[in-house]
Amino acid sequence: MIPVELRAGDHYPAVIVGGGQAGLSVSWHLVQAGVRHVVIERESAAHEWRDGRWDNFTLVTPNWHCRLPGYVYDGGDPDGFMTRDEVYAWVRGYADSFDAPVAEGVHVRRVDRRDDGVFVVQTSAGEITADTVTSATGGYHRPITPSWAADLPERIVQMHSHHYRNAGQLPGTVLVVGTGQSGTQIAEDLHLEGRQVHLAVGRAPRVARFYRGRDCMTWLADMGVYDVPAGAQAAAKRAATNHYVTGRDGGRDIDLRLFAAQGMGLHGRAIGITDATLEFDDSLTANLDRADSVAESIKNDIDAYIAREGIDAPVEERYRPVWTPDGGPTRLDLDDIDAVVWAIGFRADWSWLGDLDVLDSHGHPVHEWGATAVPGFSFVGLPWLHTWGSGRFHAIARDAEHVAVGIVAALRDVLAVR
Fold it and tell me: How confident is the model at residue 139 (pLDDT cuts 50, 70, 90)?
């Protein structure tokens, strides 16, 4: 990586906002094309892998999925799962491998487009201009907590999953709210530390780690599931939470029913506080059944693929629930809770895009495989940018190449006009 010192008045043919794997991947292509550019990163390149994950974090996708332009995982465990620090080192190594030009510690405050087509980029290092701008900041910006979180007693420690690192940060009994990938893995982390854990279970689906001799995500990749374009998927599918599973200790299922049988308290969706009591709805049974149903439907698809392709794969017994809830809503006395981890996601913040016409009426990016209606402005690194694989290492290289080709074409148009 080549550190870049931004100065007021600088002009770049291309500016990339965000120094994670998506922004760096576009940078790689621009380096190959000989395009002068800069990657602007508010913190440090790849910092989210180090600063936004807990100590025992691992990837949930196999290491062989990790393949960026000109740079693929070549370690000794392609079917394993890199730890937080290993992923951080791998992505930082990528930036170093092609001397990515990165301005670290610089905050992009606003981007506007002048009448002559030039972008004005206001940064903490001063105002610069650019012929093209690419947003590579992802779609997860501001941690979400419910409005009624303010009604919890002050003695209860509250923390968003983004800031969770280990059990030592939290006192006593912990309630985890949310069962996406972060919520379930944090609940497991606390559970393995011997803590009393309560978990508010949402509608997130799950997937088995292994089935019929292989990792389920390897089966799905071979089946082309991660390559189906977003336009061919229903809106509900694109908005759905990712399936929960873990890569910890070589990878295994996350079975919430097993956790309950071992003493974890499972509840439905947390809905608020009444008379010093935390109330949960009666959705637990349905949510657990739904998660199991999704996991089994994926196995059905794998079975069909194996039969269709004539693959010799071992036969495996199907999952049998080890615990069933009593049904009905539940409640917890606030006196019985010492800490809460909110794992209910993030809200996007596109306020820095100024008056650029690249968002819909709900504030969501409007694009076609990253390209927007504003000439020279593009997105990369968004979930479902083009396919399901866009939100993971599996398809970043393909998306980055497509977006970079668009940047080079836009620059040709600029030169033709000028």
Answer: confident
